[in-house]
Specification:
This protein is 28% helix and 25% strand. With 529 residues, it is an alpha/beta fold. α3 packs antiparallel against α4 and α10 (254-260) crosses α13 (356-364). The longest helix is centred in the first third of the chain and has 33 residues, at 30-62. The protein is globular and about 75 Å long. The chain starts with 13 loop residues before the first helix and ends with a strand. The relative contact order is 0.11.
Length: 529
């Protein structure tokens, strides 16, 4: 008989549950030692109670699943319990700041060194070893769209998914190969994605899909699932981040299938990173290592950090292993130091190359360790919930011979906001078989900094209504737009342009306007900048 469901009145005190009693009391006297020991014992009791209560609730929740999928649901819940136990082990920051070291010499290689190596086999042979995996679990809600983010139109009416298929098809035709495309969907994106995949039936690309887990959101006060039935609304559930890729691609059977076909490596990246294309130089380094006795089994592409990337994860050495350090793991008093461009010079692009055999062996033996990320959310009814997630890059420390490669910035072209969308829609980029390439007409290979403010630009449909057509931005360095601003046809923007419409005012940039190093203020005065 299962115990009673804990109600919202039985809330969990996070300060007590996760405080570090030894650090807080420094063991200066026998009294503080005794007090610290007492707190630790109480914490353990609280954690045991939380684990037991969650187990009972998951058992109850699993029984509400349809009979034909109940066993699978309960396996997923077992995996969630394991994640929850790791979450409860947390006590303070997950790293000791003073133990952080710079990555050891040779652990981060320069892309020029990689690209200068000669190929020991044909491109066709290299590509026969490869699988391309795109992370396709996200929705387009942050940009005001419904459905999968991969179905948002980004250039010439083509979506992220269209461009991805074009890239792989072009590769397959050029080298007469059959590189498969694999999509990791979530329960949020699976149905819509599969409907769209029908249109690629005649393309020269084999497309496979698998789903990441569906885990229950946890009430922050009670540490219990907000769902009471497996049929509860979607907002009661969440996909637990892209760290799911290891377990889910292995249990899908795809890794075994690809290994039997003689494939050796998978290239994993976010589907909204338009710079994440197959790189034959990196693949050559993996397939034909300089030291055959020490082949690389994991590559993380990193690139130089700018002020726009200060929150991006970075590579460090910690406990004698290469490790990804995310801002969420950094103690509050060191966050500014973490954001320093001078101390932490690189960040993770989330373009990852992995040895399929290593992924299979490490996953099946439960040796892939990833830090638990606690993501706080609020439901429509006001309930505060947490999502326990993991980042796939964090798995780097579990691989025996992992490295970073400092790649050109062009391999990191994510579209997270409409300001990113404006960049890739402009004449700054040209489209070549699904790949975005910076225009040769731009004199400097740097990307302009674009800031589009407030509610007028954040959603795709509102953003589109602001432009008669996309301005010429070939010589733009910095654009800031705030307030009720519209752009006419054939506007040219150069240098630094700042356009600010005050509240209640509107600025219409006329067709054919030429703005170079200008500030346009609320009363339409145009000032030199």
């Amino acid at each position: 008989m299962l115990g009673p469901r804990r109600t919202s009145s039985n809330y969990v005190d996070w300060d007590i549950l996760f405080t570090d009693p030894i650090a807080d009391h420094n063991q200066k006297s026998s009294h503080t030692k005794t007090r610290a020991q007492s707190i630790m014992e109480f914490q353990q009791l609280m954690k045991n109670d939380a684990r037991s209560a969650l187990h009972h609730e998951l058992e109850r929740l699993g029984d509400t699943a349809a009979k034909e999928c109940r066993e699978e649901v309960k396996k997923d819940f077992d995996n969630f319990e394991t994640l929850f136990k790791r979450f409860l082990l947390k006590s303070g920051p997950s790293i000791i700041w003073n133990d952080i070291k710079a990555p050891p010499k040779g652990s981060i290689k320069g892309y020029t060194d990689i690209s200068s190596s000669s190929f020991k086999c044909s491109e066709k042979e290299l590509l026969s070893k490869l699988v391309v995996v795109k992370l396709n679990g996200g929705l387009g809600t942050s940009m005001g769209c419904t459905g999968p983010k991969s179905l948002i139109s980004v250039r010439s009416g083509l979506t992220f998914l269209d461009l991805t298929v074009q890239q792989i098809e072009s590769l397959n035709k050029k080298y007469d190969v059959d590189v498969p495309l694999v999509l990791m969907n979530s329960f949020n994106t699976d149905a819509d994605t599969k409907l769209i995949l029908r249109k690629y039936g005649s393309c020269h690309v084999k497309i496979h899909t698998f789903n990441q887990n569906r885990y229950p959101r946890i009430n922050k006060e009670t540490l219990l699932p907000v769902a009471t039935s497996c049929n509860d609304p979607l907002e009661c559930w969440y996909p637990p981040g892209h760290g799911d890729v290891y377990e889910c691609i292995v249990k899908s059977g795809l890794v075994d299938k690809f290994l039997k076909e003689g494939r050796e490596y998978m290239f994993v990246s976010n589907i909204d990173n338009l710079g994440a294309t197959v790189d034959l130089n990196i693949l050559n380094m993996l397939v034909n290592p300089a030291d055959p006795e020490k082949p690389c089994d994991f590559v993380m592409e990193v690139t130089n950090k700018t002020r726009a990337d200060v929150k991006g994860g970075t590579l460090i050495e910690y406990n004698d292993r290469l490790r990804l350090l995310e801002i969420a793991q950094v103690p509050n008093e060191h966050k500014d130091e973490f954001k320093s461009v001078s101390k932490f010079k690189i960040f993770n692009t989330n373009n990852l190359w992995m040895n399929l055999k290593s992924v299979s062996e490490l996953t099946r033996s439960n040796q892939i360790e990833m830090e638990v990320i606690v993501n706080n959310k609020r439901l429509g009814n006001g309930t505060n919930v947490i999502q326990l997630e993991a980042a796939c890059g964090a798995g780097i420390k579990s691989f025996s011979n992992a490295i970073g490669i400092n790649v050109p910035r062009s391999r990191f072209l994510p579209v997270k906001k409409t300001s990113d969308l404006l960049l890739v829609m402009s004449n700054l980029y040209e489209l070549d078989n699904g790949t975005m390439v910076m225009s040769t007409k731009r004199q400097f290979p740097t990307t302009p900094l674009i800031k589009l403010g407030d509610e007028h630009f954040t959603k795709v449909h509102k953003f589109a209504a602001r432009f008669s057509n996309i301005p010429d931005m070939l010589e733009l360095d910095h654009l800031t737009v705030s307030g009720d601003v519209t752009f006419g046809k054939d506007v040219v923007l150069k240098g630094t342009v700042i356009i600010i419409a005050n509240h209640g005012e509107r600025i219409d940039i006329p067709s054919g306007a030429f703005l170079e190093n200008k500030i346009v203020s609320g009363n339409l005065r145009i000032l030199d900048h």
